[in-house]
Amino acid sequence: MVTFLHYFTDSLSGGVDDMARVFNANNPRYELKAVALDHESFDASMQDTLQHGHPPDLYSYWAGERTAAVLADLEPIDDVWKQAKLDERFSASLIRAASVYRGKTYFLPLTQHVVGFFYSKKVFAAYGVQPPKTWEEFLAVCERLRSGGVTPIALGAKDRWPAQFWFDFLLLRTVPYEFRERLMAGSASYDDPKVHAVFARWAELIEKGYFNAAPNDAAWDKDANAMVHDGKAAMTLMGTWNLGHLAQKPYEWVPGKDYGFFPFPMIVPEIPAVALGPIDGIVIPKKAQNLPGAKEALVFLAGVEAQRAFSQGSGALAPNLDIPRSVYNEVQQHALDEIGRSPYFAFPYDLSTPPALAELGLNAFSEFLAYPKAYPTLLRQLARDVHAHTQR
């Protein structure tokens, strides 16, 4: 038995059981038992079992700062990585971004998501608008929709993290990528004029009525998606895991037919494009009860058959380079093109920032949505809080 504790639940549950079935059908030695917990319960369980023993053999986890924060309790996988020649299955840039930490390999990529706009084709057609490529075009589309009585943008920020994508893109489309890296690390200030400019632009969208009212009270899936599906809103900024949710009842929307996908518009043309999204994967705890079985499962889950099964159920792109483009639907192909045209691939804010600092930022984004005009005061306080934390 190989136990696998993961957070792919509810709206995000697609694909993981398919992946486990593929493993079990092909492996006579071990059974992969996948156990799901919601995000909050998963975090608590992981921290407890890592520290006090009896962890599962495998955890799902997010690449980036979340993995970096628990390295001391993880088993390096350089041996199995080399034996299985996994360098040949994943791109060098993805390995650098997601798998290697402090010179050792810890993380097997399972899914790669891309954040962009999901839009109702019916609503866009009814108002004669096309997916915008520039900020000026985006504003024109929003104004046309708003003046016609449709909310341009649905935002469900009840869980806090969906709001971060607006901060991410407004920053990444207006400042050099290196500035964002310094901001995430705490060496640049949230009181910097470049950050103020991001919030000023965001506040203007809110004040013009381009967002739904009270986004902090709305869920990203059951509310924001419902507004787009029902024609009350035209689009929502979300990751490609949304494919799995929109395929479920009561939506049962078909990608490319009922809805489309477009990247966040360019704002400053001189700023190189950055694709944004999380990479989910697998890590092995040091105290895994079945370390040989965990490593055998890890190698299998790096393969085409398992990654393809997970991709088809979850809406994610499969990190394995041998997955053919033809297996992807129209929206996934647009996401793949966004990665291909972008010199950089960035993790979302809460995965690019040390966890304690990310909490400060996520709270600030929620407060901003409630009081957008107060952003100068909010950013000064956030800068002080981040500085105080980094000096400890």
TrEMBL record:
A Pfam family in this protein? SBP_bac_1
Q: Which InterPro entries does the UniProt entry name for this protein?
A: Bact_solute-bd_prot1, SBP
Provide the species name: Candidatus Symbiobacter mobilis CR
User: Gene3D superfamilies this protein is in?
Assistant: Periplasmic binding protein-like II
Query: Could you tell me the keywords of this UniProt record?
Result: Sugar transport, Transport
Checking PANTHER family in the record gives: ARABINOSE-BINDING PROTEIN-RELATED, BLR3389 PROTEIN
Q: Which domain of life is it from?
A: Bacteria
Question: What's the chief localization of this chain?
Answer: periplasm
Protein name listed in UniProt? Sugar transporter substrate-binding protein
